[in-house]
Amino acid sequence: MELWDKIADDSPLTLRDHICFRPSMYIGHLGDGSTYESGLYVMLKNILNNSVDEFRLNGKNRIEVVIDDGRVATIRDYGRGIPLEKLIYYACKSNWYEKKDSEEFKKSIDPNGLGLKIVNALSLRFELQSFQGGSIRKIIFERGMLISDITEKTQVDDGTLVSFEPDIQFFGNYRFHKDIVQNILHHIAYMNVGLRIDYMGQHICSHHGVKDLLEARLTSEKLYPIVHLQSKGIEIAFTHIDDDEDTCYSFVNGHETPSGGTHLEAFKYYLTRTIHFFYDRFKPADVFPGIVAAVSIQIQDPVFESQTKIKLGSTLMAPDGISIKQFIGDFIKEEVYHYLYTHADMAEVLYNKMIKNRLRRKGQI
Does the pLDDT value for residue 29 go beyond 60? Predict the structure, then answer.
């Protein structure tokens, strides 16, 4: 019996066939793990995102990540565990509407549950374990074929374990690079204050969200203390360094969007506009040179421009909700303006930096 659903009733292709024939549709650039853009890390994040969902739902604040010899990734969380009777369904069936239609997962980064299936399809070996109520079910696939299915009693805590070895047919002589994995895990921690990630003897966590992100990423001394502002559904941070380049990080529902999208566009537009109104001068070209900033938002049913989820395409905070542009704009206009008004020393440093940027732009210094 074919475990994998067909992609359409009139198609001979299964979901696994389609993923394997067109992997770039699902994970972008394949690569060998030597760069952050490699699809290996999209696969890793697909699994981690599910574990983060469990952290956000039940507060079990530990995820364990192991990379064995740079080849095999194992992620263990302590959430509710996958219902044992549905383990195979989650691993290879084409749709998982239970998650998509659940109120609990409206702000999930993977509401259709496709991530597990992508990883299974593109792995030489894929192991999925669920621990629930004193029982464990473990299934193992090799290149998408089920080779083992065992259920037995256990005394370990509830949760889920996923272990996968990417297929050399797609990734060649690949390797998970420690520094790239660490960067991914740190970003997840910044987006989930209180979550502890145990990784190869390290305990990765964050207490101040995107403020910690900027502190870790600064390459030069900051000109003024990091401005860190947050409210329900949004968190921003920014400062300036004595430089001409701008560095902006963006996140949606805890997932990094390195190519930005509608949320980053709105952040840049309204930050510039608010600063312009406060000082009654300055253009974007005066504001952004030297800025180091981050914006993170939480939205319902996010829509991205591709399955790799590197750029947000959504225009609304929720179906039939307000626009992302208005939501971010209202927050920045009120909070950033108030911050500048009540922090005169910082406002003066920012003013001097933008004057310097303007003079450089005009070739006067």
Answer: yes
